[in-house]
Design goal:
The structure is a homodimer. Chain A is built from 6 helices and 26 strands. Chain A is mainly beta. The first copy, chain A, has 2 domains: 233 residues, Oxidoreductase, molybdopterin-binding domain (Sulfite Oxidase, Chain A, domain 2, Alpha-Beta Complex); 112 residues, Immunoglobulin-like, CATH 2.60.40. In chain A, the strands form 7 sheets. Chain A has a 5-stranded mixed sheet. In chain A, strands 6, 7, 12, 13 and 14 form a 5-stranded antiparallel sheet that branches. In chain A, strands 19-26-25-21-22 form a 5-stranded mixed sheet, with no helix packed on it. The radius of gyration of chain A is 21 Å and the shape is globular. Chains A and B meet through strand 21 of A and strand 21 of B.
């Protein structure tokens, strides 16, 4: 399906369809409109018939469930959560300037968006199925068909049961008050607030309760974090850091990199996201490489699961200038300064200080 | 009381008594023996009679409780939690090398320890009292007497109700299987795993349920985080970051700073702590300022609330060398590199890469 037609998104890959908005479009509203929400797919978008659709909940449960879309809407209270999803590969493009990362999507800093999701709480569905004591993970599989290692399978991943039982994890069938768009997982997707986007599996076909994390390629192999010196040939996949919660991140959306600015004070605007259930507590902007900082003001609410828009007014001397940003979370963690120190050959979790270069007239 | 007699701790202040173990002693066992556990007090240690002791639970509750030590032991199940406490001022000494921080304790990197705590779950006590819907914070006050601004009051602080209702927050009366020592809060203290030590109020006199955070000096004023350029005279206390969860941290305990090392491979050992309910997922050690890293091995379990001991074997060239360490938490956050970038005039939350300088023979 030609999802790259009539889109205002920057298309990073046509098939599978991968696209993100421009920084300027992204920063227009704290709730991203559906048509501007970044798209990260690993296979062709499946066309799912809403009437024929069935969601299987099985594994270590008292009673396996086979749910229609109508069952999900009718049998469980409708829950609403505002949540930011972010691809683990967001800001990979800046990593690629340090060293090439073959075979991965070259995301700018806009593989992130925020929406109001509505659906059944996963918790309520799991309670109805009756989860066994020994269960430690809820594993999702989608209806899409990925091809890897000569096999075809649905994209999948898992989350710890502790997270799955929190009310904020949804089996979402609405996005910003509309039925889930096809590219975003129609008719039902998982939405796992605070986690990397890959765990919010789209076109959800099955939820299996089990003792171990998912053995799906995208949990057991991809989405793992390695130290900077490791390459594909030397990677010990078994012992690498398995990604889960998002890391703390902050990005400058305006002015954009390379902009020439008029004389006068500059309004710097961007987003910050805390990850997990933490909140963004402070955002600092610097024009001297971190020697001194201006504390930003807030342009949106401070809530769990959602990014926070910020703005700072700065006086910039004439000439070529660099603006940098860093955020602080509610545990007083801040971001690493130098992307080279956290570079990894898969290009995940770039949360080094974001920098834009501008010319001040 | 002369708490500095017969101690193996390094005494940073005699009255109030503030002391920490040496790095080498701290690293001897993952469970710190009571006599080696760091001590952070803000006033003289109160002498509390265990029979006369009463804990008041009041504020927005259905029924105020006045509990004796025996009530707490008898009426609520005994819960055990292994938890690391860390002073928000841990590693302040390294901040002081950048610029002086007058009026604060010069902590090394050992204002942190780990113990097995036992007591009533705060949750169970709050359920017994019946917490009102509008409550947002549980505020603790101790029996010690701080003098500040010509007033005398008990040291205090608060935690969000959401945290207070988690099973891991204890009203502890035992530390490593023994009654709580006097300097550690006999007969009862709060233990708030994952939070800065200041919230684990000792010699607990009162727990008040309320809509706002505590207005005690140590919540409303002290223990706030400022950007590097702010000084006491320019501080906007109202709008500063109020500390809560601990930040991610890692420290090299062996070899100690300034050591001369024998020829051969060096075993580097230390601790790492994730903060909040996160876990430490990786520790990296570098001998070239972060250009390349050695991933450390684990010397203790990976559990919520407790630090993790790690060890790395490295080959060090002859001459003056610097060893640095950084940790990664379960949300793929790592630590900032440069202490100057996070320096603050109160000297809190130094979690820059820890560095030790050694001479290799």
């Amino acid at each position: 399906m030609p999802f790259d037609k009539h889109t205002r998104l920057i298309v990073r890959e046509r098939e599978p369809f991968n696209a993100e908005p421009s920084p300027d479009l992204l920063r227009q509203a704290p709730i991203t409109p559906n048509e501007l929400f970044f798209v990260r797919n690993h296979a062709a978008v499946p066309v799912v018939d809403a009437v024929a659709y069935r969601l299987l909940v099985d594994g270590m449960v008292d009673k396996s469930l086979t749910l229609t879309l109508e069952d999900i809407k009718r049998d469980f209270p409708k829950r609403t959560v505002t949540a930011t999803l972010q691809c683990a590969g967001n800001r990979r493009e800046d990593f690629m300037k340090i060293e090439e990362i073959p075979g991965e999507v070259a995301w700018g800093a806009e593989a992130i968006s925020n929406a109001v999701w509505a659906g059944a709480a996963l918790r309520d569905v799991l309670v109805a199925a009756g989860v066994h004591v020994k269960v430690a993970h809820a594993a999702f599989v989608g209806l899409d068909e990925v091809e890897k290692r000569n096999e075809r399978f649905g994209f999948g991943g898992s989350i710890p049961l502790e997270k799955a039982l929190n009310g904020e994890v949804l089996l979402a069938y609405e996005m910003n008050g509309e039925p889930l768009p096809m590219v975003h997982g129609f008719p039902v997707r998982a939405v796992v607030p605070g986690y990397i986007g890959a765990r919010s599996v789209k076109w959800l076909e099955r939820i299996k309760l089990q003792t171990e994390p998912s053995d799906n390629y995208y949990q057991a192999h991809a989405y793992k974090l390695f130290p900077p010196h490791v390459r594909a040939e030397t990677a010990d996949w078994e012992n690498a850091l398995m990604l889960g919660e998002q890391s703390l991140n902050a990005v400058i959306c305006r002015p954009v990199d390379g902009a020439t600015l008029e004389k006068g004070a500059v309004i710097v605007q961007g987003y910050a996201v805390a990850g997990g259930n933490r909140r963004v507590e402070r955002v600092d902007v610097s024009i001297d490489g971190g020697e001194t900082w201006t504390v930003a003001d807030w342009e949106s609410e401070n809530q769990s699961w959602a990014w926070r828009f910020w703005q700072a007014r700065i006086e910039l001397p004439p000439g070529a200038q660099q603006i940098v940003v860093r955020a602080w979370d509610s545990a007083a963690n801040t971001q690493p300064e130098d992307a080279r120190r956290i570079w990894n050959f898969k290009g995940y979790m770039n949360n080094a200080w974001h920098k834009v270069n501008v010319i001040q007239k």
